[in-house]
Design a protein that fits this description.
Helices cover about 45% and strands about 25% of the residues. With about 100 residues, the chain is an alpha+beta fold. Bound molecules: zinc ion. Zinc ion binds next to strand 2 and helix 1.
Length: about 100
């Protein structure tokens, strides 16, 4: 007796929010901070993303935080928190992706 392979789960919409292609994807949120001494600007990237787009966005946001996030008193601490949270989020995303689609 042969057991049928378990179908790979995919969301109803089936499209990656970033590239728009139909691929396996999961939700990911990444936080970006830009410090400009007396002000700061924050941006959140959130949505269903395929693995390639998530990886590319993770490196882009982390690089931005490392280069432009630190400039300001509050920004210094916000950027440190963002770098940690983004890393934890991305590791969680990668582990869940492997577990779900491997
Ligand atoms: Zn994508």
């Amino acid at each position: 007796m042969e057991i049928a392979a378990r179908p790979k789960p995919i969301s109803i919409s089936g499209h990656c929010k970033v590239c728009g292609q139909v691929k396996n994807h999961l939700n990911l949120s990444l936080h970006q901070n830009t410090g400009v001494i007396i002000q700061r600007y924050s941006k959140t990237y959130s949505g269903e993303m395929c693995r390639d787009c998530a990886k590319e966005l993770f490196y882009k946001v982390q690089l931005h935080n490392l280069l432009f996030g630190w400039w300001g008193t509050i920004s210094f601490f916000v950027t440190a928190a963002n770098l940690c949270m983004n890393t934890v989020s991305y590791i969680g995303y990668s582990l869940k992706f492997k577990k779900t689609f491997a």
